[in-house]
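Why do we care about 3D structure at all? Because function follows from shape, and shape follows, mostly, from sequence. That is the central idea of this module. The next example makes it concrete: a single protein chain, its amino acid sequence, and then its structure expressed as tokens.
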Amino acid sequence: MRLTLLAAFVLAAPLAAQQPSTPAGPPPQPPFTSDSAGVMQVVRSLFTGMRTRDTALMRAQFHPSATMRSAGWQRTTAGPLPLITEDAVNEWVGSIPTAAAGKLLEERLGPPQVQVDGNLAMVWAYYEFYLDDQFSHCGADQFTLARASDGWKIVFVGDSRRRTGCAQNLPKGS
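And the structure:
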């Protein structure tokens, strides 16, 4: 019996040595600087579309299955409670042309934090929202993007909204 096990081990050892020890790694990543610029261009195009009420430009930035969530507060008799709401991308984009007729809808972004790994990217930025020059609210925007065959597309948008603790100092067009 021992001789049979030893023979099996001796015969199997060369076969095991021929097997690759680890799978091939991921493909080389494109330069971060070019990817992060492309990712930010998508976010900037979304807000340019909002400012100009160009819904075709806005829709072009989203993947068809994109989702949106907002984290805020709900006032109750017991005090404020955390509230998470969902916005459908098509409903949000469709509301832009009729929102506050004649007023500029402007979301001003602070310096963004961009992270890219292969076909996945994330943008996080403080924002302030204005109707014309009238401050409305602030918070943080979080965008998740994925590279599609036609470039970077937004697959998820999350934001927080508040009216207090806002810097109210971001310049127009930022």
